[in-house]
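Next comes this protein:
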Amino acid sequence: MRWFNPSHPQTMQAAVFIGYLSGVFALIGGSRYYELVLLAALAMLGGAFGVANNKRIGWIALLSGAAFFVLLRLVDLLFAVSSGLNPVLLQLNATVFPVALLAAVLHPHTREYMKVWFE
C-alpha cells in the first residue's frame, strides 16, 4: 500500500497529487451543497489512493469524483454570476484545480497506462 507511485507516468502522478489536494480542499472548503461536495471529496481521495496502488476502480472513482466536483463548481459559478465580478473570480479560481485534475485523469498517457498496468 502506497500513497504515491513514482513509477507512474507524469500525468498520472499529477492526477494523484491533485486528487489528494482537491479532496482535502473540498473537505475544508465551504459550499452550498456540502453533502454532495463531501461525496465528491471522498471519491477523489479514495480514487487517488487507488490509482497510486494500480487499481482500476481507483481510476474510475477519481474520474467520477473529479467530474462531479467540476460540475458542482460550475453550478456555483453560475450562481455567482448574479453577484458581481468578485464572486465570479473567486469561483473561477476555485474551479482551476478540479479542471486540471479532470484533464490529468483523462489524458491519453494516463488512460493508456491504466489499460495496460491496472488490475
User: Anything to note?
Assistant: The longest helix spans residues 56-80. The helical segments are 10-28, 34-52, 56-80, 85-106, 108-117. The radius of gyration is 15 Å. The chain has one domain: 10-117.
